[in-house]
Amino acid sequence: MALGYKSRRGGAFRSVFGFCAVHWRRQPGRVVFMLFAVLLSTLADVLTPLFSGRLVDAVVSGRADDSLAWDSAMPVSLGCWPLRRSGLCTSNVDGHHRLYVRPCRTLPLMLSLAFNAFPAIGIPIASMVRRGKVTRGMWALDLLNDTVFVALFPSLVMLIGSTVLMTWHWPMMGLLVGVGSVCFVLFTAIMPVRYVAPMASMANSWDTKLGGSLADAVTCNAVVKAFGGESREETRLSWVLQKWQDRTRRTWTRGTLNGSLQAALLMVLRGGVLGLTLWLWSAGKASPGDITFVLTAFFILQGYLREIGMHIRNLQRSVNDMEELVFLHGQPLAVVDVAGAKPVVIERGKIEF
Length: 353
What we know:
The chain has a single domain (12-329), classed as ABC transporter transmembrane region fold (Up-down Bundle). Helix content is 78%, strand content 2%. It has ten helices and two strands, in the order H-H-H-E-E-H-H-H-H-H-H-H. The chain has helices at residues 12-25, 28-60, 67-85, 106-120, 125-130, 133-169, 171-219, 221-226, 230-282, 288-329, and strands at residues 90-93, 96-99. It has a two-stranded antiparallel sheet. Helix 4 (106-120) packs across helix 6. Residues 1-10 and 88-103 have low confidence and may be disordered.
């Protein structure tokens, strides 16, 4: 499988995000509120290392009455902490920010779409639900909303804010952190799309085929036994199962390799920042507070960067799960009403044999 292999539905990311943008435009107030709350919460993470470094310098000075200590501690307690809690609409569940104000309108909207649009293009809704295309796409949209609004957006804010602050302190440190972070983000963005996503799309396709084959095997069991076709049916199922197992294993292998490479890149970036910090300290260009600021800011940024890979993998998985649903949503109607058609009104009816 080539690195640049394209799935059978090229432009999946573009079509899925175009589909989601339509739903986002229907609730602009909610979208703006979520982005604003997450922005305030993330700014606290950006500013806390700065005041922490100043506080360490004040403590190291040994003067308990030094106004610098109080001037540094007050912004942390009275400014950054309220900012951090300003996202009262967010909570921490398994280490990920989740909104209390959920875009819950999208879930029933997906089911409404399924039951109204799919029959109009000639697709049996029972078959669609059985094969998981509707429910899988519905929950994938929920995951995509969380990933974009409360995962990738604050990571972008944290990356830009930390780079600007470090550049303001030491241009060399800001350059190292900025270039290293951008390279890491580009790697984590390109690898899932070009290396993992094509195989994941194929694995999802075979997962759908496996579900359909199992459903056919169960419903047609009596017919198979009546004609003595057990061995032929087992051969067919074994072939489908083997193809599904092979595609799924290759998807998991690529995902694991992608995660390992991301961890290695992050370790290299961490070593570079620590080495440059020690060099600045040994050259007398950094105070204890400066070192505290750099290390605290980088470790917070590192947490965001470490999760970016997971967020992009979640984004890629959401797009793969929604791909078929969005494709079907864009199909032309197979049953079109005649222009000017009126509803049928049946007053009486009977059954004749």
